[in-house]
Design goal:
Layout: H1 30-63, H2 66-87, H3 95-124, H4 128-156, H5 161-215, H6 222-244, H7 246-258, E1 262-267, E2 272-276, E3 287-290, E4 293-297, H8 301-309, E5 319-324, H9 329-334, E6 342-347, H10 350-358, H11 360-365, E7 375-379, H12 382-387, E8 394-400, H13 415-424, E9 425-436, H14 442-454, E10 458-465, E11 488-495, H15 516-528
Parallel strand pairs: 5-6, 5-8, 6-7, 8-9
Antiparallel strand pairs: 1-2, 2-3, 3-4, 9-11, 10-11
Helix pairs in contact: 1-2, 1-3, 1-4, 1-5, 2-4, 3-4, 3-5, 3-6, 3-7, 5-6
Length: 547
């Protein structure tokens, strides 16, 4: 029998086995019903992308190496979406019920995924299995959405398959755009990772359930008419309860990760800042974590900052630039030289500088350097800021940046970046670079050194020992009593004209851990461990990975 409702010249779309062949009895006109289905596609796509970005962000924060984590999440989710599309065939005989159940499950899993991932990391110490499991499960459910929605939109009003697919994917892609923009600019800064995911799940459950329970309610059997509302209300109740308990959960989980003395936990627009230690007492008890990684320990930070700064200060040092260093500790060491005229601190996150100014313990540790009139703070991306700087501005540049294996900082360890830094040096100027641990990540360390040489600089590598016992708390901790090698910091001192000599300026006030003799011995030891033949890291070909 020929379907007379199809447009002239267009064959009716083939119907899947078991699917309804007649239009649904709707409470609205078919045109309005079709718009409601497309609006649901829009919302579901936005929610799905938020879940995906939530997993990516939290995985990068908890595990590090964001390129690897992004690849794992995206590849697993895309594969799972294909699996979900195939599994959706079994539900197309009852598409309304199938879609409602898929959305309820997706809202529950997606809304609680960030919480489960953080809990796995906090109490089990490992979040990779949970990351893969949630990526797969969420991907399967997202993959099942479009086939079911395709069947539902054909139930509203029959049209050619090509037109229906075009409409659905247009709404899907626009929804993904909105979700992708809402996550970094709205959900993350206002609600945080955990609550943002829960709110997204609640919206997902409410919209998916409302479409089926109102628009397609006449397609539902007696059992489905009470089962689906009960399932959606249960999901919303779980998400609401989890939202109310989110703050308590974060406090308990944070104590499990960082220990019992977390006294500052701030999510800036760029990263999470956590300070542990008592509110009063010696600043040596302070630990500062940025995105879960220990960046400052009051116990031994002086070893790092003395070794980073003072070898570069042995020549002319009237004008100094510190790249990173928003905690003020590198600037503290620079200002131990009384003839310094200007220190420019280029920091991406103003929240770090604000914390260094206002936190009593951190301010005591950095000796209140941000109150010194010689210190200028520039809030900017170091790469872009250096590109706009006139050449020959600084006698010393100190690169106090996160390890090069942390992907967001990779461009600041590239040949192009070091070329910009070399251009900013005055004749005879020096560049000091934190290059990651020499003993435990030699490939990364020597890649930094090779990259500096590729930028036309002469280099002198060296290192200094740090804390000899494992970190007692935090994501960077090592098990107490383990056979892990001592924690060390690796550095490279570079100059344009000639290979810089490692020494300490004799006029420098007494240093606690550094002398010309120890520096030169460290340089000789580093040369014995040299890895030759490594290519430089560039913007189009980054060479740093988690070795």
């Amino acid at each position: 029998m020929i379907d007379r409702s199809a447009p002239r010249g267009v064959l009716p779309a083939p119907q899947p086995r078991g699917a309804a062949t007649v239009p649904a009895a709707l409470p609205v006109r078919p045109r309005t019903g079709r718009l409601l289905v497309l609006a649901t596609v829009f919302v579901c796509a936005a929610c799905g992308l938020v879940y995906e970005l939530e997993l990516l962000a939290l995985a990068s924060y908890l595990i590090g190496d964001s390129v690897t984590q992004s690849s794992v999440v995206l590849s697993v989710m895309v594969f799972a979406m294909g699996v979900g599309s195939l599994l959706a065939k079994r539900l197309r005989g009852r598409p309304a019920v199938g879609f409602a159940l898929v959305e309820a499950a997706l809202a529950l899993l997606g809304g609680l995924s960030a919480t489960a991932l953080y809990a796995s990391f906090a109490w089990l110490g490992e979040s990779r299995p949970a990351l893969v499991a949630f990526s797969f499960a969420i991907g399967v459910l997202i993959g099942a959405e479009i086939p079911l929605l395709m069947t539902l939109i054909q139930r509203v009003r029959r049209q050619d398959a090509g037109g229906a697919v075009a409409d659905l994917f247009a709404a899907d892609y626009v929804g993904a755009l909105v979700g992708g923009l809402a996550f970094p600019f709205l959900l993350l800064p206002l609600l945080g990772q955990l609550t943002g995911a829960m709110l997204t799940g609640a919206v997902n459950a409410a919209v998916g359930g409302a479409l089926v329970l109102w628009l397609f309610r006449r397609d539902l059997g007696r059992r489905a008419r009470w089962l689906l509302p009960a399932a959606n209300l249960a999901v919303l109740a779980v998400l609401a309860s989890a939202t109310l308990l989110a703050d308590d959960f974060e406090r308990v989980a944070r104590r499990a990760v960082y220990g019992g003395e977390v006294r500052v936990a701030v999510q800036t627009g760029i990263q999470e800042l956590v300070v542990t230690g008592p509110r009063t007492g010696s600043p040596r008890s302070l630990d500062l974590y940025l995105d879960g990684r220990l960046r400052v320990s009051g116990y031994d930070e002086y070893r790092y900052h003395e070794a980073l700064v003072h070898p570069a200060m042995s020549g002319q040092h009237q004008r100094v630039m510190v790249l990173g260093g928003g905690d003020g500790l590198a600037a503290r060491e620079v200002l131990r030289h009384p003839d310094v005229a200007r220190v420019t601190v280029v920091e991406l996150d103003p929240g770090v500088v604000r914390l260094a100014r206002t936190d009593p313990m951190l301010s005591a540790l950095n000796a209140g350097v941000f109150g010194d009139p010689r210190v200028e703070v520039v809030v900017a991306d170091a790469f872009g800021w250096l590109r706009g700087m006139p050449p020959r501005q600084f006698d010393v540049i100190v690169s106090d940046l996160p390890d090069p294996g942390i992907t967001p900082s990779t461009k600041l360890y590239s040949q192009e970046f070091y070329g910009l830094a070399a251009r900013s040096l005055r004749p005879g100027g020096r560049l000091a670079v934190h290059a990651g641990p020499l003993l435990t990540r030699p490939h990364t360390f020597w890649t930094v050194e090779a990259t500096l040489r590729a930028a036309g600089l002469r280099t002198t590598p060296y290192s200094t020992g740090g804390r000899l016992t494992g970190f007692a708390a935090g994501p960077d901790r090592t098990p107490a009593g383990s056979d892990a090698p001592p924690q060390d910091w690796g550095f490279v001192l570079a100059a344009a004209e000639r290979r810089p000599d490692l020494r300490v300026d004799p006029d420098t006030p007494t240093l606690r851990s550094l002398s010309t003799g120890t520096l030169r011995e460290a340089a000789r030891e580093a040369e014995r461990l040299r890895v030759n033949g490594l290519p430089p890291s560039t913007l189009p070909h980054p060479r740093y990975t988690a070795f």
